[in-house]
């Protein structure tokens, strides 16, 4: 199993590290445009191999796509991150050009690859990869919901005052400060609805804290987060590489599902060796359906800027 990660910055390196630590891939190629940067990150990470006990070989290259040839999975993290006070959508001007060039170079050397898009604004970047490459929809996956759901679970556990392993929950919709839809109605603590443990106003706070999870970290860090994003990507890569058939919310091209068409938006999918094996249709109530439509409208406005 060969995995390429484009962008050896904060998220790309974290993603390569978690993939290596989980030890399911034979090779990870890190590629960056900055001279020597990916080589340096790869060497540093390889020097953790004996300490962390993995055999995955990590190599770094400066913009040499021939070294990515035959990758089963390619992750795109190249592009600029936001600064405090910015929205993800403001990154489109610079990141759209980067994502378009990078995806085309990747496919030239790995025509059968599955692409995971991370660069922001992620739903629009995923749509751009669809429009510009024409790859089948099961092989283009946007990562956002897996991260947002991890943040949701963190906030739920905080509100409950119990362990994160006790809670389950999912965030669908757009990966944006206003477009995320944390499904509080369906969140559980060991199978019991969380509303049994959290008062309605506190649950509303959990929802709001989850939606601005990325902005909160950006304010604290001065740039956007990388550990949880890297871990979330590694989870998707592992589900595909190991044909796990796990359910994750991912941004995927919708063709009628959730009453939406010609848009990439976060919905639950089953991930396996073919990438997106199936889009899972969960029955939403009227309020959630309306939230989905609003979220889609906002993403469409950003898509129009492409
Ligand atoms: N979807 C998500 O959930 C999620 C989570 C976190 C970050 N992000 C996004 O991921 C992107 C990367 O974030 P980061 O914190 O790693 O930024 P970063 O600045 O640390 O790293 C980005 C890297 O991309 C490289 N790069 C730029 N243009 C390139 C090109 N054409 N080819 C190859 N490499 C190129 C840069 O040299 C840099 O090393 C941002 O757009 C950020 O908003 C998305
Ligand atoms: O918040 C950001 O800009 C980065 C990423 O989308 C995140 O949610 O951490």
TrEMBL record:
It holds the Pfam family Ldh_1_C. This is Malate dehydrogenase. The active site is at residue 175. SUPFAM superfamilies: LDH C-terminal domain-like, NAD(P)-binding Rossmann-fold domains. Catalyzes the reversible oxidation of malate to oxaloacetate. Residues 147-301 form the Lactate/malate dehydrogenase C-terminal domain. Gene3D superfamilies: Lactate dehydrogenase/glycoside hydrolase, family 4, C-terminal, NAD(P)-binding Rossmann-like Domain. The keyword NAD applies. InterPro entries: L-lactate/malate_DH (IPR001557), Lactate/malate_DH_C (IPR022383), Lactate/malate_DH_N (IPR001236), Lactate_DH/Glyco_Ohase_4_C (IPR015955), Malate_DH_type3 (IPR011275), NAD(P)-bd_dom_sf (IPR036291). Keywords: NAD, Oxidoreductase, Tricarboxylic acid cycle. The keyword NAD applies. Its EC number is 1.1.1.37. Substrate binds at residues 82, 88, 120, 151. GO terms for biological process: lactate metabolic process; tricarboxylic acid cycle. It is an enzyme of class 1 (oxidoreductase). Residues 1-142 form the Lactate/malate dehydrogenase N-terminal domain.
């Amino acid at each position: 199993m060969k995995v390429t990660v484009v962008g050896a910055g904060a998220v790309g390196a974290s993603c390569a590290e978690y993939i290596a630590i989980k030890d399911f891939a034979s090779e990870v190629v890190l590629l960056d445009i900055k001279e020597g940067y990916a080589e340096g990150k790869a060497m540093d990470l390889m020097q953790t191999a004996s300490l962390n006990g993995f055999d995955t070989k990590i190599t770094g290259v400066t913009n040499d796509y021939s070294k990515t040839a035959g990758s089963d999975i390619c992750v795109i993290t190249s592009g600029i991150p936001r600064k405090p006070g910015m929205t993800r959508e403001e990154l489109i001007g610079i990141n759209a050009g980067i994502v378009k060039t990078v995806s085309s170079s990747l496919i030239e050397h790995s025509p059968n690859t599955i692409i995971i898009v991370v660069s922001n604004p992620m739903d629009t970047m995923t749509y751009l990869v669809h429009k510009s490459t024409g790859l089948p929809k099961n092989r283009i996956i946007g990562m956002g919901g897996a991260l947002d759901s991890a943040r949701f679970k963190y906030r739920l556990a905080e509100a409950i005052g119990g362990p994160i392993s006790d809670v389950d929950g999912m965030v669908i919709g757009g990966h944006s400060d206003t477009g995320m839809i944390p499904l509080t109605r369906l969140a559980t603590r060991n199978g019991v609805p969380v509303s049994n443990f959290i008062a309605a106003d506190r649950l509303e706070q959990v929802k709001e804290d989850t939606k601005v999870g990325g902005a909160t970290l950006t304010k604290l860090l001065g740039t956007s987060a990388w550990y949880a994003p890297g871990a979330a990507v590694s989870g998707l890569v592992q589900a595909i590489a190991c044909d796990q058939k796990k359910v994750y919310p991912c941004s995927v091209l919708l063709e009628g599902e959730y009453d939406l068409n010609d848009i990439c938006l976060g919905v639950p999918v089953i991930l396996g060796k073919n990438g997106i094996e199936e889009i899972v249709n969960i029955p939403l109530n009227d309020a959630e359906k309306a939230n989905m439509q609003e979220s889609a409208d906002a993403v469409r406005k950003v898509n129009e800027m492409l």
